[in-house]
Amino acid sequence: MGVLHRPRVAWEGGRIFAAAANADAYYWLSEMVGEHLGVIFQLKLAETRIRLQAEDVTYAEAGAWRARLDELLEDRPELTPLLHQLVTETADRMPR
Asked: What is the distance between the alpha carbons of residues 71 and 55, in angstroms, rounded to a whole number?
């Protein structure tokens, strides 16, 4: 794996997390987020799912996740490879 660009990982993470929150991949992602990022992030993902099921706020949720993940990676840059892997695996679980 080459050098990972943290803002790019956060951006892709935001996009994929928001899309997955309203798809079948949510259940797998929720478990992985809870295990690797913590219960607070798992709860935020559940809140995202609820908002997306009530109204179409996909872009707003993607932006919120991008900011959340960017802040996480700024505080804990060692999580960048883990988050990149999580985003990649989640994307692979999404319908095409």
From this structure: 26
CB within 8 Å of 82: residues ≥ 6 apart: 36
Q: Would you say 11 and 80 are in contact if contact means Cβ atoms under 8 Å apart?
A: no
Q: What is the spatial distance between Cα 36 and Cα 15, in angstroms, rounded to a whole number?
A: 19
What's the pTM? 0.93
In this prediction, residue 10 has a pLDDT band, given cuts at 50, 70 and 90, of very high
53 and 76 Cβ atoms separated by less than 8 Å: no
**CA distance linking residue 84 with residue 62, whole number of Å:** 16
- Residue holding tokens 């990149």? 84
